[in-house]
Amino acid sequence: MEKALAIANFFITLGVERECPPTQMKLQKLVYFAHGWHLGLYDQPLIEETFQAWKYGPVIPSLYLKFRDYGTFPIKQVGTIAALTADMKITHLIPPIKNFQNLKPFLTKIQDVYGKWNGTQLSALTHQPDTPWSQVRKDYPEDTKNIPIPNDLLRDYFKRKANES
After folding, report:
1. Whole-angstrom Cα distance, residue 71 to residue 43?
2. Beta bridge partners of 54
3. How do the domains of the chain map onto residue ranges?
4. pLDDT single digits (tens) 40-78
5. pLDDT tens-digit map of 76-119
6. N or C terminus of the chain: which is more exposed, having fewer CB within 10 Å?
């Protein structure tokens, strides 16, 4: 499994290269669709973290915290993590995708398919009836956060979508 930030950085870098850097909302949804399709097609989670069903769709809280200062503006800089060097100095590292060569075509396809839409449009896709987001949100007040979206729910949903294609 990969770090959510490493996958997000892939989409930021590709978005900048294609002159369409993602907003915070779009970035969350690109990572969501990548994770969901990976579960549905390969029976394995793509990222280590669990998505939560927030008001505007699925969210990885650590990505929200990392990029929230961008607001609705495009994200053009990759995210880093702080680390200590051997001589006890703080440095900032860009987390790598461990399985980059195998994942690059898959992630590029996700960008090709979903990258043409903005964050609001992608959010609307996650809000459709019977999506994992709508299934877990139905019993909670609208402003509730921290509702986990189980990987098995994502896997089953994206497997069904794959079989419909």
Report:
1. 34
2. 57
3. 4-164
4. 999 999 999 999 999 889 999 999 999 999 999 999 999
5. 999 998 888 888 888 888 999 999 999 999 999 999 999 999 99
6. C
SS3 of residue 89 by DSSP:
coil
**Residue 68 DSSP code:** G
> In angstroms, rounded to a whole number, what is the distance separating the alpha carbons of residues 74 and 21?
5
Extract the tokens encoding 113.
């398919």
Please give the mean pLDDT across all residues of the chain: 95
d(CA 43, CA 46): 10
DSSP 3-state of 112:
helix
Count of residues making up the chain: 165
Nearest partner of 11 among 22, 24, 25, judged by Cα: 22
CA dist 22 and 16 (Å) reads: 8
